[in-house]
Structures are given as C-alpha cells and as structure tokens.
Amino acid sequence: MARFKFFLIGSTQAPVLDVEATSIAQLQADLTRERFLVARTVEVDGSPVSCDVIVPVSRIQMIADAASI
Predict the structure, then answer these.
(1) In a 3-state reduction of DSSP, which class is residue 63?
(2) Phi/psi at 44 (nearest 5 deg)?
(3) pLDDT in tens, 7-49
(4) Judging by DSSP bridges, how do beta strands 16-19 and 52-56 pair with one another?
(5) 5-40 b/e with 16+ CB inside 10 Å = b?
(6) Quick check: 37 and 31 in contact, CB under 8 A?
(7) Bridging pattern class, strands 36-44 and 52-56
(8) Closest Cα to residue 20, out of 42, 44, 43, 37?
(9) How buried is 4 (Cβ within 10 angstroms: 0-12 exposed, 13-18 middle, 19+ buried)?
C-alpha cells in the first residue's frame, strides 16, 4: 500500500489516501482499468481522518506522492 494526495475536480479539499498500489505507476495502471478507486482516508486538510472511501476516477484531477509533499 502507498499514500497519495488526491486533488479532485469540484473540491477544495485534497485528501491523502491509502491505496492498494505500491507506486504511482501501478496506481496509474489501475486507474486506466477502473471507474472507481477504493481507498482509505489518512488525512483531509491536515486533520487525521480514517474511513473507507470510493472515489470516482473521472473526478481525479491530479495525484501527488504524499511522501513528496
């Protein structure tokens, strides 16, 4: 599992999510095959949050490696 920061269309929040992919390249490959991403929140706007989420791939604007930010 790896953590990435997701910037979503129509949202001012950019949550950090745990995903099954172990690299951004693997995440990209997964997103080309799926309409929804199943993940677990780690942080939203600097505050810890923990819940399972389903993110529509069509709403993802950009993804950044959380360790780089």
Answers:
(1) strand
(2) -135, 120
(3) 999 999 999 999 999 999 999 999 999 999 999 999 999 999 9
(4) unpaired
(5) bbebeeeeebbbbbbebeeeeebeeebeeeeebebe
(6) yes
(7) antiparallel
(8) 37
(9) buried
* Structure tokens given for 42: 């780690």
Contacts 24+ apart (CB under 8 A), 46-51: 49/15
Rg for the chain, CA atoms, rounded: 11
Which two structure tokens, joined as six digits, stand for 37? Answer: 């991403």
Q: Which residue has the tokens 């799926």?
A: 34
